[in-house]
Amino acid sequence: MKLGVSSYSLWQAVQKGELDLVGVVGKVAELGGEHVEIVPLGLDLTANPELVERVRNRAAEAGIEISNYAIGANFAGLDDEAFAREIDRVKREVDVAAALGVKLMRHDVANSADTSIRQFMADLPRLVEACRAIADYAKPLGITTSIENHGYYVQASDRVQAIVHEVARDNFRTTLDIGNFVCVDEHPLVGVRNNAKLASIVHVKDFYIRSAESDPGEGWFRSANGAYLRGAIAGQGDLDTRGALRIVKESGFDGYLSIEFEGMEPCLQATKIALDNTRRFWNEIQ
Q1: What are the Xylose isomerase-like TIM barrel domain coordinates in residue numbering (predicted)?
Q2: What is the pTM of this model?
Q3: What's the Rg (C-alpha) of the chain?
Q4: Strand 221-222's sheet: what is its strand order?
Q5: Mind listing the pLDDT tens digit for each residue in 121-156?
Q6: What is the SS3 assignment for the chain?
């Protein structure tokens, strides 16, 4: 196992102008991460090969790996022309992943205001077609692509499984976020157990959870069924982070664990605590 950090965890510092993407890579190494996952929020790396090279060089200088490249995408509700354009765009992002030297890449698959199972089943063939095309493009580059359990529409473990199994490519899996299942009110340990053997990389995330009647105020968002959620430091929230990691470890997973912090605490301190907690939990699991 290699423990590292998603650059998304330090987005708070980037927004404040304290770090840029290259700086994030160095900071992850300072915090004790063994790898960094690149999430290019606000950046188009397809148009900036110089920045791609700088990020790769900074990781090499800092002695850490670049584990995964994660981007947004949406293949639902598009006409044929827009659908083809979106596939081509994501293929260009696969080229960025190759330039970064990563062997893993996560792309989103769908957004929809209608998150019903009826709409999901209607969209499923198109989603599978797109994921197959991208995985097939990535395979000669030695890259495994994946989708994550997030975004409400494709967040429950069975919907992720449906896509992964229908795509049926050995280089297409899931980025497994151990916390995100609560956003669609699925018990996180159930979701993790369902999908652990399909994981290419694992996000370690925690949440505070309050009832739909509690209305705790600023900083919270709502689950699909109305519960209040707020990002927490891994190991300090209401989720059974240790139990989720036990399931992951017992599944035989021995790849990248990536801290993904999205809470209100100062992000550098929060990420360091999350790293320390996750490392301790993992090592204590027999």
Answers
A1: 27-266
A2: 0.96
A3: 18
A4: 206-210, 228-232, 221-222
A5: 999 999 999 999 999 999 999 999 999 999 999 999
A6: CEEEEEHHHHHHHHHCCCCCHHHHHHHHHHHCCCEEEECCCCCCHHHCHHHHHHHHHHHHHHCCEEEEEEECCCCCCCCHHHHHHHHHHHHHHHHHHHHHCCCEEEECCCCCCCCCHHHHHHHHHHHHHHHHHHHHHHHHHCCEEEEECECCCECCHHHHHHHHHHHCCCCEEEEEECCHHHHHCCCHHHHHHHHHHHEEEEEECEEEEECCCCCCCCCCEECCCCCEEEEECCCCCCCCHHHHHHHHHHCCCCCEEEECCCECCCHHHHHHHHHHHHHHHHHHCC
In the block, residue with structure tokens 């990691």: 245
